Amino acid sequence: MSAPMLEVEGLRAGYLDTTVIRDLSLTVAAGEVAVLIGPNGHGKTTLLRAISGLITPDAGQVRLDGEDVAGRPAERISALGLVHVPQGDGLFAEMTVEENLMMGAFPAASWRARRRELGRVYEQFPIVADRAAQRARTLSGGERRLVALGRALMRPSRIMLIDEPSLGLAPVAIDAVYEAIAALKHGGATIVLVEETFTHIEGVADAVHVLESGQIVASGPFAELSVDPAIVETYLGSL
Amino acid sequence: MTQPDLTPPGPGAAAGGGPVLQVRAVRKDYGGLRAVADVSFEVGAGEVLGIAGPNGAGKTTLFDVISGHTHATAGEVLLAGRPVTTAPVHARTRLGLARTFQQPTVARSLTVGENMLLAAAFGRPRAERRRATREIAAEYLELVGLAGQAGERSDLLGVYDRKSLMLGTALATRASAILLDEPFGGLSPSEIDQTIELIGKVRDRGLAVVCIEHVMRALTAVADRVMVMHHGATLFQGTPAQMLADQQVIEVYLGARHRKDGGAGGAGGAGA
Question: Tell me, what's the ipTM?
Answer without folding.
Answer: 0.83
